[in-house]
Amino acid sequence: MGIVRLVGLLIFTAITTSIIAVLAGGRAFVSQPLGGIFLSLWFVWWVAIALGRQRGRASSYDRSQRGIFALGILALAVLVVLVPWEHARFDGPLPRNGFISWIGAALFGAGIALQVAAFWSLRGMYTSRLGIQERHRLVTNGPYRWLRHPGYLSNVMCLGGIGLAMSSLIGLGVTLLVVPLILARIEKEEAMLVVEFGDVYRAYQKRTSRLIPGLY
Asked: What is the largest CA-CA distance in the chain?
């Protein structure tokens, strides 16, 4: 990753963390244990993304993903602006700072941990663009030993965790809307990998799950 892009992503992380803190209630939110933990998790999440996810090379496979990418940007804007705004201004139906919120924070943290494990296993091949990278190989270690797409599962966990931690129906709604986008990307990605790796990838498909071990 280029130093300019890394610095840009770190600045983006600092700005979005600050926006969330202000819209969620400012000092009152930051001073709460859950508020401080949530902001720390958000910051760590995006630092991990900055360090672990590459942009990737443009390819014919990626052309069909532009609409999904645009919707992902919109979902991010909702998380940064509307979710903390909802948290600060409404008391229900999900209780603020209760047991469910702490479950959400734990889910958020677990999602980050899984994503870091996926980044580490792929070592530079985890990209936002869909395509085969230089010296691309099929990785089957780490969480990829059991799941073909642990990175996408981690995204769902993080989004769901954000919605629960912030007691946000908007956040949970974003999670539900993002899931079909992720499933659509998985279909395209697996078709690409079958073309590129053939029977080796088909055999890998037979012994692993897509997102949920033993279920899907």
From this structure: 56
- Closest-CA residue to 134 (of 123, 143, 148): 123
Considering only CA atoms, which of 18, 74, 7, 105 is closest in space to residue 47? Answer: 7
The fold of 3-207 is: Four Helix Bundle (Hemerythrin (Met), subunit A) (1.20.120)
Q: Tokens standing for 155?
A: 């995204």
The domain locations on the chain are 3-207
Global pTM reads 0.90
Start-to-end CA span in the chain (Å): 33
* Residue 36, Ramachandran bin (φ over 0: left; ψ between -120 and 50: alpha; else beta): alpha
66-89 helix and 150-165 helix, angle to the nearest 10 degrees: 20
Dihedral pair phi/psi, residue 54, rounded to 5°: -95, 165
- Please state, in angstroms and as integers, the Cα–Cα distance from residue 177 to each residue in 105, 154, 160, following that order: 20, 16, 11
Question: CB of 157 within 8 A of CB of 118?
Answer: no
Of 110, 86, 70, 97, the residue nearest 20 (C-alpha): 86
Asked if 43 contacts 21 with a C-beta cutoff of 8 angstroms, the reply is: no
- Residue range 39-91, pLDDT digits in tens: 999 999 999 988 888 766 666 666 666 777 788 889 999 999 999 999 999 88
